[in-house]
Specification:
49% of the residues are buried. The chain folds into three domains: 331 residues, TIM Barrel; 62 residues, no CATH class; 79 residues, Immunoglobulin-like, CATH 2.60.40.1180. The chain is 31% helix and 18% strand. A hairpin with a 2-residue loop joins β16 and β17. α9 runs parallel beside α10 and α16 packs parallel to α17. Strands 1-2-5-6-7-8-9-10 form an eight-stranded parallel barrel. Strands 11-12-13-18-15-16-17-14 form an eight-stranded antiparallel β-sheet. By secondary structure, the chain is an alpha/beta fold.
Length: 505
């Protein structure tokens, strides 16, 4: 039996927002020590974006075709990215507090937009109440079983080194030993600011499950789950799913898994994952001169490699074939995020590559997710540069690119085959790849890419569909003759979407 996944996700166009960097509202009081909005972002600086700013920009997002928001963490934290959570029961006052989230949810839902929050349940910030209690009380704290602690150190009366920055910790490593030895507790990636929760402890489990359920009842439409593989406990995630789905059966649970994730996608844990394997395939095929050193600076992108059309087609088929269609059709597809260099920068400002990547993103099974600013050509290297403030001066925008994304969102909305149809590879030779999306009603979209430098003409086998296909952008017609879409012209470095016109047209 197929897993049950939220039906609305199949129809969604997501937009990822980094709240501190998207938009500022005059209705949210601002701290005095903020970075200039247009200044390069830093690891620790705050720019003062807030949730009311997001709410006030919903008309622009609706115009783009966005129907769902994915927000990076919003809970009280001492970090601009808010992955250092210290209060899961309160929206950060710098973002406008609980009232701002309530207003954003109301405004979004009134427009038919969903809102998914980022759930960071593996680690907390040093200001988290239970960890702070241990810092103050040592071995006498009732919360010592909430973390992975050196109890002998505490029994000896030696405090935890929570604010030490020994040289051993300056290197990023997944090995817990250095942090444990130097600090007296296990920290995520050896970052002292991120004590790891011990999710084996019943009180910790209950606390996190309650948080997950509470905010769904507050009105959010689901969770993006941060580094869930590091909570290596299937029953923890099964119970979280039960609690969330009890509050809202249509809530969306999407895990940040950068690789094959069948373990979590059998129907009893997550609905979907962030589809980074497809992002890597897009980088490998569409970018003409791929800067491997820049791209591979991100841990999950270390296996990115240049792909020709046959390799690209094979990789797409492999990724799409990993999961049940009910899961495949709600995967969160993306070509970049807050954890990666922006696609435009990673491609060496290859705008043609980004345009093809967007066409790819919007015509695949699964829900497309646009990282804020990518639609206007915002640049940015690895973290923190990929988290620049959104430039609201429209004179700096690439309006052609934005219009391209807007048309693609409209194309997806107009063609059910793009949201719920089947996928079939049509062609894959040299630098040219093509596939077909189709459904039982006869709706069909043929998508073709020429990643090379020379114009190419191809015939595409589309069977009994037709009798003609029309270019969704130009209106140019191509006839179907003996089951083939004949003489499709593909200029260099372009992609085309050709649709079967509706009877009404």
């Amino acid at each position: 039996m197929s897993p049950e996944t939220p039906g609305w996700v199949r129809d969604a166009v997501f937009y990822q927002v980094f709240p501190d960097r998207f938009a500022r509202s005059a209705r949210v009081p601002k701290a005095s020590n903020l970075e200039a909005w247009d200044a390069p972002p830093t690891a620790h600086g705050f720019k003062g974006g807030d949730l009311l700013g997001v709410a006030e920009k919903l008309p622009e997002l609706a115009d783009l075709g966005v129907t769902a928001l994915y927000l990076n963490p919003v809970f009280a934290s001492a970090a601009n990215h808010r992955y250092h959570t210290w209060d899961y029961h309160r929206v950060d006052p710098l973002l406008g507090g609980d009232a701002a989230l309530r207003e954003l949810l109301g405004a979004a839902h009134a427009r038919g937009m969903r809102v998914v929050l980022d759930g960071v349940f593996n680690h907390v910030g040093r200001g988290f109440f239970a960890f702070h209690h241990v810092l103050e009380n040592g071995i006498d704290s009732p919360y010592i079983d909430w973390f992975h602690l050196d109890l002998d150190r505490l029994r000896d009366g030696r405090p935890l080194g929570a604010y030490a920055e020994p040289k051993a910790l300056l290197r990023r490593s997944k090995k817990p030993k250095p942090a444990y030895e130097e600090l007296g507790y296990a920290a995520w990636w050896d970052v002292p600011a991120l004590p790891k929760l011990d999710t084996r402890t019943p009180a910790v489990r209950e606390y996190l499950w309650d948080v997950a359920e509470r905010w769904v009842r507050f009105g959010i439409d689901g969770w993006r789950l941060d580094v869930p593989a590091e909570i290596d406990d299937d029953e923890f995630w099964r119970e979280l799913r039960r609690r969330v789905k009890r509050a809202n059966p249509e809530a969306y649970l999407v895990g940040e898994i950068w690789y094959e994730a069948r373990r979590w996608l059998s129907g009893d844990q997550f609905d979907a994952t962030m589809n980074y394997p497809l992002a890597k395939a897009a980088l490998g095929f569409f970018v003409h001169d791929l800067d491997l050193d820049a791209v591979r600076s991100v841990g999950g992108y270390r296996d990115v490699r240049p792909l020709d059309a046959p390799d690209f087609a094979a990789e797409v088929e492999r990724v799409l074939g990993l999961y049940d269609p009910a899961v495949r059709d709600v995967q969160l597809n993306l070509v970049g995020s807050h954890d990666t260099p922006r696609f435009l920068t990673a491609s060496g400002n290859d705008l043609a590559a980004l345009e093809m990547a967007f066409l790819f993103l919007f015509t695949l099974p699964g829900a497309p997710c646009v990282y804020y600013g990518d639609e206007i050509g915002l640049e940015g290297g690895p973290d923190p540069d990929c988290r620049r403030a959104f430039p609201w001066d429209e004179s700096s925008w690439d309006h052609v690119l934005r219009d391209h994304v807007k048309r693609l969102a409209s194309l997806r909305r107009e063609h059910p085959a793009l949201r719920r149809g089947e996928y079939q590879t049509l062609y894959a030779e040299a630098s040219v790849a093509a596939y077909l999306r189709f459904d039982a009603s006869g709706d069909a979209v043929a998508v073709a890419f020429n990643a090379g430098r020379e114009e190419t003409r191809v015939d595409l086998p589309v069977g009994g569909l037709g009798p003609l296909f029309v270019d969704a952008a130009s209106g140019e017609e191509n006839a179907v003759i003996e089951g083939e879409l004949r003489d499709v012209v593909l200029p260099p470095r372009t992609g085309r979407a050709l649709v079967v016109p509706s009877p009404a047209a």
